[in-house]
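haha ok so turns out i had the wrong file open the whole time. this is the CORRECT one, sorry everyone. sequence first:
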Amino acid sequence: MLKEERQQIILNEVRIHNKVLLTDLASFLDVSTDTVRRDIKELDTLKKLKKVHGGAISLGFDNHPLVGDKIYALEKKSLIAQKALRLIKEGQVILLSGGTTNLEIARRIPNKVRLTCFTPSLPIAFQLLEKPNIEVVFIGGRLSRDSQIAVGGSAINMLSDIKVDLCFMGTNSIHSIEGLTEFDWEIVQMKKAMIKSSRKVISPCISEKIGSLQRYKICGAEEVDILVTELEPWDMKLEVFKNKDIELL
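then structure:
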């Protein structure tokens, strides 16, 4: 594989998943970690991603507030947000995890809708504060520098004390057999706690993440109540979820 092809694959993975690990990329590309490290260093110099310890993150993931030209697949995420808004009703209590798709959902909530919104994400909390009829409750804890999301025991304990109507679970990877997976162990623990604190779990997810896998499991696919993508529900790519008792939107 040519270096240019390899680096394009690295860029695609970073844009889709926001963060990638050296070891995972080396395995995926079947090259050494030193080769991937050199590629990431070059791409960082070209300002196409940001090199971090053990891997790389997308430029959009590292810039707050995010702007449209920094968000990967913004058109698809906007369509997902429009669909997701159909699920939100006046007076509900909802939970929004982090991620650029959830940020787009938060941005598009109409100002007139009255809601209580819990979130561990600083960017989403700031976005929601612009809505005059939304009561924003920040789930506090130690902040992850990369994602600006609260993690750790304090945040998980707070989640154990609530029961929300809807949880919009930012989705890194989803697989019909392996379920929802993540690369960050602390984020996994947060998302497990979010599932327990929610009556209904919604996965807003661009179709490029379908079938992908990360190293740590959050839950089985059957624990997701509604999968929201930019695709039509009858699209062949979603066929694998038809026997999982998941509503496709």
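The domain at 3-57 is CATH 1.10.10 (Arc Repressor Mutant, subunit A).
again sry for the mixup
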